[in-house]
Description:
The protein is an alpha+beta fold.
Amino acid sequence: MKPVRRLFAALLALVLALAAAPARPREQPYSQAELDQMLAPIALYPDPLLSQILMASTYPIEVVEAARWSRAHPNLRGDDAVRAVEDRDWDPSVKSLVAFPQILARMDEHIEWTRRLGDAFLTQEPHVMDTVQQLRRKARAAGNLVSDERVRIADEGGAIAIAPASPQVVYVPYYDPWVVYGPWWWPAYAPVYWAPWPGYVVVHRHYPWRPAPAAAGFAWGPAIVVSIGFFFGDFDWRERHARIVHVNSYYVQKTVFVQRETTRTRFAPGRWEHNPGHSRGVAYRDAAVGQRFAAADPSPAQ
């Protein structure tokens, strides 16, 4: 009987210890300085591309897988690359980024930044949207955010929207956050900085035929051709969230069809919803976020 009593006593002590243990505190929200820091290198991307980067950042393991695939297929980009991964079990936002291998490469190389970005997007989406707008206003005030033959800058109810000048041609900008926003305002939180991308050329915004001085901070890569309707994401700046504007993209249709067949209809026009099935077991930074998705089907769409 003594071994049984000792086992009972040990179990009782464990139960009492667990009951006395403090509840896991909620993680503190990212500060404004941290959000400025992490969003600095991408805030000036066209809205459709930026929305899908933010979505994809919530699935870091799939981003790593997609980046590896992209490195193994260096000659594929744009539509050709996305068609080649149509049958992969990645979230559509991740699939879309194989069209832009340089972006995937940076997200993979800076995977901790990617994960933090995804955490911020899931826990502080309105704050992330506000931060993008604040950074864009600073870039415009510094004279570094204007329409040209590559992008169109427009005011939407007080918000600054950025769109490709052509729906079938996407230019991904590279810029130096230390330059385009003017003097950086957080001495203790330097902006995330990426080295210049190979093949990118600095162009004078007002005189495209003349090379710009290095201080201009902006550079452009080759045009990436995509299909009409390639992008499915965008932003509702008034409501401060990402949204799905349509699901006509060829690489989204199959996913949506399967989700409907299995009664999972997360991917539909309207407000974007994170699909925890594509998180692949990565823990959420905030316990409340984890609880929010705990009841969701963990298996990814096929």
